[in-house]
Amino acid sequence: MTVAIGGRVVGGGRPAYVIAEIGLNHNGDVELAKRLIDVAADAGADAVKLQKRTPEIATPDHMRDVPRETPWGTMTYLDYRRRVELDRDAYVEIADHALLRGLDWFASPWDVPSVAFLEDLGVVAHKIASACLTDTGLLEAVRDTGKPVVLSTGMSTMEQIDRALETLGTDRVVLLHATSTYPMEPEEANLRVIPMLRDRYPGVPVGYSGHERGLQISLAAVALGAVAVERHITLDRTMWGSDHAASLEPAGLEHLVRDIRIVETALGDGVKRVFPGELAPLAKLRRVPA
User: Fold this and answer.
1) 74, 149, 184, 250: which one has the fewest Cβ atoms less than 10 Å from its Cβ?
2) What Gene Ontology molecular function terms does this protein carry (predicted)?
C-alpha cells in the first residue's frame, strides 16, 4: 500500500507526505512562487504543487465573460485566468528552484494540453483537482503518462470516485479525502471518511487535502491514518486572490509539519508495554505487585 513520488514513498508506515499547495497564490508572479517554495522547504514540507490551465479550455463557458476585480483592474474572468497563468520559462525557473531546495514539485493539470505541458517539464507526479475528478478525458491523459497520481475527492460522490479509479487504476494512486469549501468549517470536515476510503479501496494510500483555518483538523487526519497532507500556503492570508484566506502562512506551515511529526511519533506501534519512563513511578506508586 505504497506509492513512490520522486524520491519519497507515500504510505506503508512512512512519515506523512506533506504537500504545500501554491496553487494560484503566486498571483502570476514567478518570484512570489519561488518565495513560497522557500517557505515550504524551510518548514520541512516534501513537495510543492501548482495549478496549470489552458484558460481557453479550462474556463467554464458561463464564467468567461463575468467581470472580475483584480489588482490589474477590472477584466473578464477569462482574461484574469490568462493573467495569472505562468508560461514555460516561469515553470522551468520554478522547477529548478524546487529541486535546488530539495522538494518534489508537480501540478494539477486542468485540461489535456496542460498534461503534455507538465510532462515536457518532467514532473514526478500529477494531481487531479477535485473539480476535475469527473473529467474522464483528463483522467485518461494523466493515466497514460504512467506517473503517480494524487486524486482529491472534494465535491464528489462515492460513485464518481469509483468511476475515476476505474479509469485511473489503483496501482499508483494516492487518494485524498477533501471537502471543497473555502475556507472549510469543522462540521464539513467529515474526517471519518478517511478510514472508510481505506477500507473501500484496499491497497490505495489515503491522505487528506484541507481548506480549513488552523491546524487541528489536519492533525486529526494524521491521527486517523492520513498518509499525506496537502494544505494551501501563502505569505499573507490578506493578500488578494481566492485561495489566500484558506491558506497557511509561513509560521502555520512550519507548525503543521512539526506537529504532524509529533503526532506520528506519539501514535507508536500499538503494542502495549511498560516504558522506561514509567519504571520510577511504578516503583514509587504501585502498592500491590502483579
Assistant:
1) 74
2) N-acylneuraminate-9-phosphate synthase activity
Helices 216-223 and 250-267: angle between axes, nearest 10 degrees: 30
- Tracing cell 478525458 back to the chain, one arrives at 137
3-state secondary structure of 234: coil
Closest CA to 53 of 91, 110, 94, 116: 110
What percent of the chain lies above the pLDDT cut of 90?
A: 91
**Distances in Å between the alpha carbon of 231 and those of 6, 79, 152, 184?**
19, 27, 12, 12
Is 267 buried (19+), middle (13-18) or exposed (0-12) by CB count in 10 A? exposed
**Under a CB-based contact definition with an 8 Å cutoff, are residues 256 and 231 in contact?**
yes
C-alpha cell belonging to residue 26: 503566486
Residue 278 DSSP symbol: G
Identify whether the C-beta of residue 37 lies closer than 8 Å to the C-beta of residue 22: yes
Task: Please answer whether residues 155 and 134 qualify as being in contact, where contact means their C-beta atoms are separated by less than 8 angstroms.
Answer: no
| Residue 10, C-alpha cell as written in the block | 507515500
Grid look-up 507515500 returns 10
pTM (two decimals): 0.95
Phi/psi-derived region of residue 151, left when phi > 0, alpha when psi is between -120 and 50, beta in every other case = beta
